[in-house]
Amino acid sequence: MKDSDLRTRAKEFALQIFRMCDTIDTKNWRGVLVNQVVKSATSIGANLHEANYASSKADFINKLHIALKECCETEYWIEMLVGSNTISGQKATELLQESGAIRRMLVKSITTAKQNTEEQK
What is the pLDDT of residue 2? Predict the structure, then answer.
């Protein structure tokens, strides 16, 4: 998975989240939302990176599952940012489209890894 499209997209997605969060006033309760979306968005790529050093196929699949959960959590926080009128619907749509693409790639990767594991048995 080194230098894969998935890892590249996850990293760029996290950077998009950083740039978006730079525009938000965090001196109030919105800071909590910003912290949460940054944590979950950066965790996607971090878990993909960690998967490269998995100790087993099961560990590799587990890291992909964690990345998938973080991707879904990021989508929730983006929805909260929209619901609280912190970001525009248009910006959220762009981010959710990319998150959705990453999510689908993760599901495909997990499915493929599981199939490969079953074939090796």
Answer: 46
The secondary structure element, H or E, covering residue 25 is none
Inter-residue contact 44 to 92 (CB < 8 Å) = no
- The answer to whether 37 and 77 are in contact (CB under 8 A) is yes
pLDDT at 121: 65
Return the H-helix or E-strand segment holding 51: helix 30-51
pLDDT tens, residue by residue, 49-84 = 999 999 999 999 999 999 999 999 999 999 999 999
- For the chain, domains (ranges, CATH) are 5-120 (1.20.1440.60)
Rounded to an integer, what distance in angstroms lies between the CA atom of residue 14 and that of residue 8? Answer: 10
Please state, in angstroms and rounded to a whole number, the distance separating the CA atoms of residues 46 and 68.
12
